[in-house]
Amino acid sequence: MTSDPTGTGSAGPDDVQPVGMQKPKGLFGVSDTGDTSGFGGLVQATPSAGELVSTPEPLGGYFDEIVAALREAHGDEITRAVVVDRGELTIHIAPDRVAEVCKTMRDDESLRFELCNSVSGVDYPDQRNRLHVTYHLTSMTYRRRVRLETAVGLEHPVVQSATEVYPTADWQERETYDMFGVVFEGHPHLTRILMPDDWEGFPQRKDYPLGGIAVEYKGAHIPPPDERRAYK
Amino acid sequence: MTATDNAQDAYAAERDTTEGRVYTVTGGDWDELVASVDPVSEERLIVNLGPQHPSTHGVLRLVCELEGETVRSVRPIVGYLHTGIEKNLEYRNWTQGTTFVTRADYLAPIFNETAYCLAVEKLLGITVPRRADVIRVIMMELNRISSHLVALATTGMELGALSMMIYGFRDREKILDIFEAVCGLRMNMAYVRPGGVAQDLPRDGLKMIRDFVDYMPQGLDDYEGLLTGNAIWQERTQGVGYLDVSGCLALGVTGPVLRSAGLAWDLRKTMPYCGYEEYDFEVPTHNGADAWARYVVRLDEIRESLKIISQGLDKLEPGPVMVEDKKIAWPAQLALGSDGMGNSLNHIRHIMSQSMEALIHHFKLVTEGFRVPAGQVYTAIEAPRGELGIHAVSDGGTRPFRIHMRDPSFINLQSLPALAEGGLLADVIAGGASLDPVMGGCDR
């Protein structure tokens, strides 16, 4: 894994990219001519690979209402991108506007996302803004779910804290800091939570090794899991 | 205590640190200690409860600031059982993932597996056969009962009702016996797999489950006879560990704790999965919002789970328990042999001496695994302790790119200061036990 700061991300506000690290090729991922079934030549284009592609509107269902209410409160530029995938809505926002967006999501009459279910991070090492933070919100009133996503780079990994709006984000943001090194501005006491206080490094980053020791069994040498042969 | 004493007695020394004076007490010179630190004085005493303590529900450390017997502040410290499950998942294929997630919340393994498999299936865009869905529901509800039984048993033990512990574990054992008959393991069974379940119910499995459903109501009546009318139990739990609905929502608390505050939020009803909308059951709630209410809600939930299991048994119809797609379905089959549960000898014979293609197929799927289209999903189910969410991200490969488990123990533990501060030290234990945290799930 490389932490190349340039990565594949392009400049501008469209640097938030969802998943899509590699182009699936062939039915079993064979890159040479090993597959004689004919499926080896198949190349599937992943719409989410590379630059972020917003889903064309209307999005359908209640998704349009949520996006419209959010834009009405904060202006059109609040949503960097809106992606609907597998029946789930993801709204990409700027890292310094998390708190105000969360406040609207919680308090707006037509939104009412009372519960913040989950805050966690994802590391996309090939992107310029590689550290993503996702917030999964649930509206108990309307029985809806939505995902907010924001992305920051390693040189300035600062995201606004949502603890003022959702106190439950407290430990979850600490965990995200612990595991990814994302600094949450405005968090009351951002310290490590799962790892020891004096731990160095951020274990869930992709360039952090899994570790482990090699095992020898009856003469066979088995390397630790992160050094074993992997399929592409 | 003089300086010479300190030098001689390494086990009852006092030392000055930047935090203040620290005393190490292992018994013995209590008179001297009380003389040097008067607990009724205005000074506050910091007491470390845990991480190794029988009443902290596992390796949980509570730093309590005491004023006499009154708790002025509690700071839960977690992470002692962090095993890096989420990181490990990124180095195994999607099917192997079930064996890791099942070890997170070790009292609710079936829930971990089901939530994870629902996420993988949503990423794949597949639906599992109906029989697999019904089996999942039956196994989940059995698991919910066993988990609630441990909650009742350990709460009983921590509050001094030792008989409850014995009865709770006795009846949980019957469920573990069912699990063992169904999948060969009592805990951490990796029974639910992406695409269905590992194998069908055994021939005598249905009878075992029916016997249990017939047996359990009597057990519940026994618990009620033992605890509900018990004055000590009432005194220790009623009005203790109060947390109302707004407090629950602000702190993200779900599950029996939220329902004990009066909000009937149960994902099985509000956002059904695995066909729960077909089952007829109630969502028990209570208005107490205290440890007593949580006890009542858990007992009622066991009764509702028994109803669901009975209905599930009636819904079982013959059919496959794994998706038909051979590019996803696990090729090996399990069978009961003379030496216990293991690979089906018929399958071994087929791949080793009948079909080279079957061997290649088996080898590719087991060592490499199937590919999951790129994307991210969030699935949530109602685990015994609340919402168990899985945020799964795939990059299109054979291994998870990132799995995050939103474990209810982790989230619910945040509310411990809110429900324990201002109360007595003994109520920290009662309140904490009523949250029913499982540190394996909390720390993952």
From TrEMBL, chain A:
Membrane topology: Peripheral membrane protein
UniProt-annotated location(s): Cell membrane
Signal peptide (from-to): none
Pfam families referenced in this protein's UniProt entry, alphabetically: Complex1_30kDa (PF00329)
Catalysed reaction equations from the record: a quinone + NADH + 5 H(+)(in) = a quinol + NAD(+) + 4 H(+)(out)
UniProt keyword tRNA processing, yes or no: no
Protein name: NADH-quinone oxidoreductase subunit C
From TrEMBL, chain B:
Membrane-topology annotation of the record: Peripheral membrane protein
Gene Ontology cellular-component terms listed: plasma membrane
This enzyme's EC code(s): 7.1.1.-
Top EC class for this record: translocase
Domain NADH-quinone oxidoreductase subunit D: 159-444
Cell compartment(s), UniProt: Cell membrane
SUPFAM superfamilies membership: HydB/Nqo4-like
Transmembrane segments: 149-169
Family that this chain belongs to: Belongs to the complex I 49 kDa subunit family.
Quaternary structure, from the entry: NDH-1 is composed of 14 different subunits. Subunits NuoB, C, D, E, F, and G constitute the peripheral sector of the complex.
UniProt-recorded name of the protein: NADH-quinone oxidoreductase subunit D
Source organism per UniProt: Glycomyces luteolus
